[in-house]
Amino acid sequence: MGGLVTLDSIREAAAGLVGVGTRTSLVPVPALQTLAGVPVYLKLESEQPTGAFKLRGAWTAIRRLSDGVRRRGVITYSSGNHGQAVAYAARRLGIRAVIVMPETAPALKVAGVRKWGGEVVLAGTTSEDRRARAEEIVAREGLTVVPPFDHPDIIAGQGTVGLEIVEDLPDVALVAVPVGGGGLLAGITTAVLALRPDVSVTAVEPDGAPAMHAALAAGKVVRLPETHSIADGLLPVAVGALPFAHVRGRVTSVTVPDDAIAEATVWLHRSGTVLAEPSGAATTAALRAGLLRPTGPTVLVVSGGNVDPADVARLAERRGS
């Protein structure tokens, strides 16, 4: 495992994203402020060109490759959003991208990868299935792997979210972050605490996929026997070793039931605030379920919005709302 990502590396990533990614909005939500008793803002990563924060890390990692390595093409394994980001970055740079996705990937995310010119390969249902297939292709075709979370350049790119939060809301007291593999959490934690050591950072995961929660409790990365949730972007059976090294002893965590995630997804859509996928709605779910107890200005990171409105409507029907 390499050294920890620095604030300087995150700042370089931010400069490299100019003209490629979006400096996303920090939107106050009065209804959530009334509920929490403090100002509450949504950090809308759904505004990125690919609909999710993953563009920040994917672009940074690919941009930092040498020209010769980049020309051979890239490959990744992803449930969807990271795959779309890699495909988007590769198209911008004029190189080949192969995206290994689960057989259960939402059709919208598969279509998104293909929209940006990515070659889709379907493999199994777990992150291990996808990673194994990607490694087979690498051995055969010489592509370079762009990991979804366990890499310093990915963490540096995701850390630009934290830079923007502190710049736009200097008195932020709490930042809540959805967690899959931990790259976003690691980057935000690094940036925010380097600039504001007094800020609280909270990891938010589904009850059925508490990989970071288990790791923080054990003091080491823990492999779960299985994961399940409607939040398809938050399902790795273990967080990355490098992300965990960045956050150990520095963050708290909560887990959220799927019912609360579904409720928040529907609420965000119906309130006209944002179209968020369940993974992106997890932080709002944690607040609405009373699992976060903020004492000052709070930012809920909405990590992505790649969801079909019809699927949100079906969630509402199943909930009878």
Write the topology of this structure.
Elements: H1 7-17, E1 26-28, H2 30-36, E2 40-44, H3 54-63, H4 67-71, E3 74-77, H5 81-93, E4 97-101, H6 107-115, E5 119-122, H7 127-141, E6 144-145, H8 152-168, E7 174-178, H9 183-195, E8 200-206, H10 211-218, H11 241-247, E9 252-256, H12 258-270, H13 278-288, E10 298-302, H14 309-319
Parallel strand pairs: 2-10, 3-4, 3-6, 4-5, 7-8, 7-10, 8-9
Antiparallel strand pairs: 1-2
Structure description:
The chain is α/β, with parallel strands linked by helices and 321 residues long. It folds into 2 domains: 7-52 and 151-319, Rossmann fold; 54-145, Rossmann fold. Helices cover 47% and strands 14% of the residues. It is built from 14 helices and 10 strands. It has helices at residues 7-17, 30-36, 54-63, 67-71, 81-93, 107-115, 127-141, 152-168, 183-195, 211-218, 241-247, 258-270, 278-288, 309-319; strands spanning 26-28, 40-44, 74-77, 97-101, 119-122, 144-145, 174-178, 200-206, 252-256, 298-302. A 6-stranded mixed sheet has the order 1-2-10-7-8-9, sandwiched between helices. Strands 5-4-3-6 form a 4-stranded parallel sheet, sandwiched between helices. Helix 1 (7-17) crosses helix 3 (54-63) and helix 9 runs parallel beside helix 11 (241-247). The chain is globular and about 55 Å long. It starts with 6 loop residues before the first helix and ends with a helix. The mean pLDDT is 94.
